[in-house]
Amino acid sequence: MVQTQGLKRSSPKKELPLALLFAVAGALSFWLPDLAIHVHAARNFGSRQVWLITILLPAIFLSAYVVARWFGVRRGFKWVGAAMLLGVWLTGGLFTTLAATASGGGFVGTGILGALLIIMLSVIPIVTYILAAYDGSLFALLAVTLGALLFCGVRASWILLTSVPSPPDVIGEKSR
Predict the structure, then answer these.
(1) Helix ranges (DSSP H) in 42-110
(2) For residue range 35-87, what is the model confidence (pLDDT) as tens digits?
(3) What is the 8-class DSSP label of residue 82?
(4) Has residue 110 been placed in a domain?
(5) Is residue 160 helix, strand or coil?
(6) Separation in Å, CA 44 to CA 48, 51, 55, 104, 107
(7) Phi, psi values for residue 5, rounded to 5°
(8) Residue 25's closest CA among 69, 76, 55?
(9) What distance in Å separates the CA atoms of residue 66 and residue 162, rounded to the nearest whole number?
(10) Which of 71, 96, 136, 151 has the most CB atoms in a 10 Å sphere around its CB?
(11) What is the spatial distance between Cα 145 and Cα 90, in angstroms, rounded to a whole number?
C-alpha cells in the first residue's frame, strides 16, 4: 500500500464498513434531534420548533463530524463528511415520516404496504428534500449540505494555493 504523508490507508475491505458506520453516524446525529423535537411537540409543532431544528440540527451534525473526522483520520478514511452527508440524505425520508407519525401523519393508517412504499421511496434524495420542507427541517438540511460543499471548496482552494511552486529566481535574488 502507498503511504501518503504519514497517514495509514485502509484497505478496500475496511472502507465499506467505515463508510456505512459514518453514514449511520451522520443520519443519527442529524435526524434524531429532529425526531425528538417532533415527538416532544406532537400536535403543537410550530415556528418555535422550526427555529430550534434549524439551529440545533447543523450544530449537532457538526459536532458529530468533528468526532467522526478524528476517528476517520486515525483509520485512514478520507471521505467522512461525504459518507455522513450521504447518510443524512438517504435516511431523511424515513426519519421525517417517523417524525410526522408523532402528530398523526406518517405511518399512521398506512398499513404494511404503505409503510414499505414510504420506506422504499425515502431513499430517493428528492423525497428527502420534499419531506424536509414539510417537516420543518429544510433550512437545516440545506445549511448542512451547502456548508459541506463550501467547506470542501475552501479546503480544495487552500490545498491548491499551498501547493503552488515558488516563482522562478529573478536575476540577482535567491529563492527562499
Answers:
(1) 47-74, 80-101
(2) 999 999 888 888 899 999 999 999 999 999 999 999 999 988 889 999 999 99
(3) H
(4) yes
(5) helix
(6) 10, 14, 19, 12, 19
(7) 50, 35
(8) 69
(9) 23
(10) 96
(11) 13
pTM: 0.78
Q: Supply the range of the domain harboring residue 93.
A: 15-161
| 3-class DSSP assignment, residue 27 | helix
Grid cell for residue 127: 423525497
How many whole angstroms separate alpha carbon 87 and alpha carbon 167? 44
φ, ψ at 49 (rounded to 5°): -70, -35
Q: How far apart are CA 60 and CA 140, in angstroms?
A: 11
d(CA 121, CA 93) in angstroms, rounded, equals 7
Does residue 170 lie in a domain region?
A: no
Number of Cβ atoms within 10 Å of the Cβ of 131: 24
Number of folded domains in the chain?
Answer: 1
Radius of gyration, alpha carbons of the chain? 21
> What separation in angstroms does the CA of 171 have from each of 166, 174, 176?
15, 8, 14
Cell of 129: 428534500
Specify the length of the chain in residues.
Answer: 176
User: Is the residue at 167 inside a domain?
Assistant: no
* Sequence-separated (6 or more) residues with CB below 8 Å from residue 33: 53, 56, 57, 60
